[in-house]
Amino acid sequence: MPTYNAADYIETDTGNKVSRKSNICGAVNIILGGKTIIKPSAIIRGDLRRAGPQQAIAVSIGKYCMIGEGCVVRPAYKTYKGTFSYYPIKISDHVSIGAGSVIEAAAIGNHVEIGKNVIIGRFVVIKDCVKIADNAVIAPNTVIPSFSHFAGSPAHHIEDLPEVTQDLVEAASKSYYQSFRPAAAG
Predict the structure, then answer these.
(1) Does residue 179 sit in helix, strand or coil?
(2) Do 88 and 61 contact (CB within 8 A), yes or no?
């Protein structure tokens, strides 16, 4: 059962549990959907957003997500018609990102499990119900179809996942959140 020191985490009104040892840059440009856990040393770069006076959401993270220790989540970027710009990243519900992973995707669907030390290149689109194995490297601009298991460097399709994947990942993410409690004193 995963526990944590209550003094090391901030819990929001919507149930998000954010480590005080994580690095949240540009918090005003980040949306957390609720019941999301952000582990120590994770870096979320909301400060990397499109230039201009308008309010722009750079990083959107859904419900029941877990951002592992030492992960980096940052918006993708490119130069278009001579102008350098960042593009927002959307992470949907029930997404687990393993420790040490670097994410620059355009979008990550619902019910996705990303292993440890994974590198996801710029503008990758990951559809719903996907599993990415530890140490995988996903090339920029890759589109990963639903119910796929990817592994390797460069990552490639290993197998199709069963239709029950959605239920299994949702149950696992809710269970992890419910069991992620402060350690008992004493």
Answers:
(1) helix
(2) no
CA-CA distance, 85 to 75, in Å (whole number)?
A: 10
Sequence-ordered list of residues with C-beta below 8 angstroms from that of 186, at least 6 positions apart, any chain: none
Q: What is the rounded CA–CA span in Å between residue 162 and residue 183?
A: 36
Asked if residue 161 lies in contact with residue 173, where contact means CB atoms within 8 angstroms, the answer is no
For residue 7, give the 3-state DSSP assignment. helix
Alpha-carbon span 122 to 17, nearest angstrom: 27
Q: What span, in angstroms and rounded, lies between the C-alpha atoms of 86 and 68? A: 23
- Percent pLDDT > 70 in the chain is 96
**At residue 87, does pLDDT exceed 80?**
yes
Question: Which residue matches tokens 């239920």?
Answer: 167
What pTM was computed for the model? 0.93
Both structure tokens of 118: 């994974």
Which of 122-160 are b and which e, b meaning 16 or more Cβ less than 10 Å from the residue's Cβ?
A: bbbebbbbbbbbebbbbeeebebebbbbbbeeebeeeee
* Proportion of the chain above pLDDT 90, given as a percent: 83
Tell me the mean pLDDT in the region 22-38: 94
